[in-house]
């Protein structure tokens, strides 16, 4: 069975977090759909809450360190990304944007990305199209058509998919992302010494 690496960015600031809950559901749906395509998904979740101090440090110094550098490398090597942010002041969270700001500008170029957001009211769902899509389009990512917004009421137990359409939207977004991933060759992951020339190359002109 083929393998692909899926990186999930969760921008929730609280623990537990509805943002993380939505991120996990999207990852589960995508992994399930990939399995139907004969692909095993290796899922890694990046909790931005844990990287906040390192993000600020890189903003000031220009250098990534520790877990932040590791997360950036994982994103650059990902076959697909799920990016989920809470809504603050009618847009993505400041920490979420700060994390994106310190990524290499080409890190997500061509990478399939599913965008999602959480908020207290369905009125905030416009953030998907007026903030998140333009952000990842600017980075050159391949953003799938279905984006997912979850308001507080969407987590209610009462009613089926016709009343609370979140589960079906999650499944549809997962199908779209899985189809993009399954139809692409795996992202090549550079080894530590891949860029080091061989002795034969070094002596070639001798």
UniProtKB/TrEMBL annotation:
Keywords: Flavoprotein, FMN, Oxidoreductase. Residues 6-154 form the NADPH-dependent FMN reductase-like domain. Its EC number is 1.5.1.38. It is an enzyme of class 1 (oxidoreductase). GO terms for molecular function: FMN reductase (NADPH) activity. The keyword Chloroplast does not apply. The keyword 4Fe-4S does not apply. This is FMN reductase.
């Amino acid at each position: 069975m083929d393998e692909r690496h899926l990186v999930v960015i969760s921008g929730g600031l609280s623990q537990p977090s509805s943002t993380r809950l939505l991120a996990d559901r999207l990852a589960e749906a995508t992994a399930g759909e990939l399995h139907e395509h004969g692909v095993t998904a290796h899922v890694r979740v990046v909790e931005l809450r844990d990287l906040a101090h390192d993000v600020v440090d890189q903003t000031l110094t220009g250098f990534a360190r520790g877990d932040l550098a590791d997360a950036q490398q994982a994103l650059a090597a990902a076959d697909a990304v799920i990016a989920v942010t809470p809504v603050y002041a009618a847009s993505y969270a400041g920490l979420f944007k700060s994390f994106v700001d310190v990524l290499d500008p080409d890190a997500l170029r061509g990478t399939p990305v599913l965008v999602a957001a959480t908020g207290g009211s369905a009125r905030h769902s416009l953030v998907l199209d007026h903030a998140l899509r333009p952000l990842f389009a600017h980075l050159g990512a391949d953003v799938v058509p279905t984006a997912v917004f979850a308001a507080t009421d969407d987590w209610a137990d009462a009613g089926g998919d016709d009343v609370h359409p979140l589960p079906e939207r999650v499944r549809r977004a997962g199908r779209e992302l899985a189809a993009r991933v399954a139809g692409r060759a795996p992202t090549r992951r550079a080894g530590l010494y891949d860029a080091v020339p061989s002795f034969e190359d070094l002596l070639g002109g001798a």
